[in-house]
Write a structure and sequence with these properties.
Length: 628
């Protein structure tokens, strides 16, 4: 009787395939079902990942974050006291716009996390060898990995639909706009997903590809956004509204802006550009969908042609590793863990090119943009906008790099077995963790110095050029000419390293904590990103009432590099509404005094977290001993 239970379960699991073989259906439909709905790899991924706590927390956090933003927006609309139908519709439209932007940014962040399994697990040679020995075709392998993980992104978008529909209660949002917003987000997820699958096909060890997705995505969005703003043409002379450009359909944020702000970012009825650039300018949403679908199809076909070649490349790489020459021993100085992180762990060509290439590109951008402004080719407003986007993108990339390197630092040593060897030495947990922090900080120093030097240059330019550096911003409650606003406050710009460096130190410490507590690198990276999103979301909520807190608002803005950047280069943007009324000198003094205090708080938080990790180091390592 007990033997019949497993047989019954096996029969139930094989019933769909049994009926598929018995029911006479056209071969085309049968082949399509085997590639999509009945793909064994997709069924395995959906069934296994649906029971993982990490994926459950990611889905819950996604819905919770959107729900919290929706409730706060609705409370703000009701608390404003303007309850006319027109005001309610305008407030509802603003809430929907904010939710759509947050959802798109989360899709950019979460899609590489869901696709990380295709990069780190299926990219391993042994996994590929087993998969290639099955009767599955190359197209089934590629589509199974893609659809199995893209399923979770689709469920996230479906779960966001009811929240988006709530904004229709007050009017101002059409149902067609909601559906088009979800379509734009899904096309973005499809594009990132296919690129992840292609990366797993061409790499046999692809954990670094996870952070590569984040870096490439942020750089692409920032560059296209900056170039698009430089190419925009006003609808009429002196108007703030502008026409869409041929770059609009290549950036999902610009496509979303064209959809949600049709009066300020106007789509022309006809274009003077030749096809297909003219079609892209007049139909940005359709062009974005076609571009993502065509690139995805081409990538899937190319990846399916490369699947069978991966096994041969894996054997060739293994043979090359066996014939590698033995290097001479090096003299260790100072903390051995810090020396190892600084000298041996990140000396490959990709790491060196990534760090110093990032620094060189950042310096080139700041030199070129400053030259364009100094020669009066760019106005102060355009220079401030471009440099703000560039420095903001640099901050995001450096923060992601700090979280990735720290979150994968200990897990890599656990996976390759070197952590067990280190624990047999006389090294203490504090020495080990302190060496990790020091080594990672030195490793990321060229990247962290790039936005700091850029902010210093912007501050010097604002101080040296005088009236030429004034922008057209008008503080709330004032009229044109009441206050001249420079493109940046030079005092807070020079204090920017006191805000960024301690913040990065906290990111590194938090990444080390999750790297110690997690079994794999992907889980540690995902947990660190989620925690930093929660912390950033909490600081963002505090910024809303802080606008009317005077000096308190400057202190809260100094707790995070992005708000501090906005407060420095655009003090009249509304982030310091009450403080700017007292004058630029008081605003600069408040930001300069708040920067070291906020940095000291991040250092204390990092120190306390590091002590907590050190106290539980031995117990955590023993609990996860032997796991990988």
């Amino acid at each position: 009787m007990n033997d019949s239970i497993p047989c019954n379960r096996l029969l139930v699991k094989t019933l769909p395939y049994h009926f598929m073989n018995q029911i006479p259906i056209p071969r085309v439909i049968h082949a399509a079902l085997r590639l999509t709905a009945l793909n064994p790899i997709a069924i395995r991924l959906v069934g296994a990942a649906s029971r993982r706590q990490r994926d459950f927390f990611i889905r819950t956090g996604f819905v919770t974050l959107l729900s919290a933003n929706l409730l706060l927006g609705l409370f703000a609309v009701l608390a404003s006291g303007r309850l006319s139908l027109r005001d309610l519709a305008a407030g509802s439209a603003q809430i929907f716009t904010f939710l759509a932007v947050v959802e798109l940014l989360l899709i950019c962040l979460l899609t590489p996390i869901f696709m990380a399994g295709a990069i780190s697990k299926e990219a391993q040679p042994r996994t590929w060898d087993i998969m290639l020995s099955t009767p599955l075709s190359a197209l089934q392998i590629v589509l199974g990995n893609l659809l199995g993980r893209l399923f979770f992104i689709a469920t996230l978008l479906l779960s966001a639909l009811p929240l988006m529909a709530v904004t229709q209660f007050f009017g101002g949002v059409r149902g067609e706009t909601i559906l088009l917003t979800q379509l734009i987000a899904f096309c973005l997820a499809l594009l990132i997903g296919t690129l992840a699958i292609a990366t797993s096909v061409t790499r046999t060890a692809g954990r670094k590809a996870v952070i590569t997705f984040f870096v490439v995505t942020v750089c692409f969005l920032a560059i296209t956004w900056s170039v698009d703003h430089a190419l925009r043409i006003p609808v009429s002379p002196g108007s703030q509204d502008s026409w869409t450009t041929f770059l609009t359909p290549f950036n999902p944020l610009l496509v979303l802006e064209a959809l949600l702000s049709p009066t300020s970012y106007v789509t022309p009825d006809a274009s003077t550009l030749a096809w297909p650039l003219g079609f892209a300018q007049t139909n940005p949403i359709a062009t974005w969908c076609w571009i993502t679908v065509l690139i995805s199809l081409s990538t899937i076909i190319w990846a399916s042609l490369q699947v069978r070649k991966l096994g041969d490349r894996s054997k060739q790489n293994a043979l090359l590793r066996r014939t590698t020459l033995v290097q001479k021993p090096k003299l260790v100085s100072g903390n051995p863990i810090a020396w190892r992180e600084r000298v041996t762990r990140h000396r490959n060509m990709s790491s060196l090119f990534g760090r110093w290439g990032f620094a060189s590109l950042g310096m080139l951008v700041i030199v070129v943009t400053t030259t364009l402004f100094a020669t009066n080719y760019w106005s102060a407003d355009l220079y401030r906008s471009v440099i703000g986007i560039v420095i903001g993108a640099e901050i995001v990339i450096v923060s992601l790099a700090a979280m990735y390197v720290s979150a994968s630092s200990i897990t890599k040593e656990r996976e390759d077995g070197s952590l067990d060897l280190l624990l047999t030495t006389a090294m203490t947990p504090r020495m080990y963790l302190g060496g990790k922090v020091r080594g990672i900080v030195v490793h990321l120093l060229p990247m962290a110095a790039t936005p700091c030097v850029s902010m210093f240059v912007v501050g010097v330019v604002a101080l040296a050029f005088g009236e030429q550096a004034y922008v057209s911003d008008i503080p709330v409650g004032m009229q044109a000419g009441d206050m001249n606003i420079p493109l940046a406050l030079w005092g807070p710009a020079t204090m920017f390293p006191l805000v960024l460096i301690p913040f990065l130190a906290f990111c590194i410490t938090l990444g080390l904590q999750w790297s110690l507590r997690s079994k794999g690198s992907i889980r540690a990276i995902a947990s660190t990103l989620i925690m930093m999103l929660v912390i950033s979301f909490g600081l963002g909520i505090c910024m809303t009432p802080a606008r009317s807190m005077g000096v308190g608002g400057a202190f809260i803005a100094s707790l995070s590099p992005i708000p501090y950047l906005i407060a420095t280069i655009s003090p009249a943007s509304g982030i310091l509404t009450s403080l700017i009324q007292e004058g630029l000198t008081q605003t600069s003094i408040a930001l300069v005094a708040s920067a070291p205090i906020a940095g000291g708080m991040w250092i204390l938080a990092s120190w306390g977290l590091l002590r907590s990790v050190a106290s539980s180091f031995v117990m955590t390592v023993r609990r996860l001993a032997g796991t990988s």
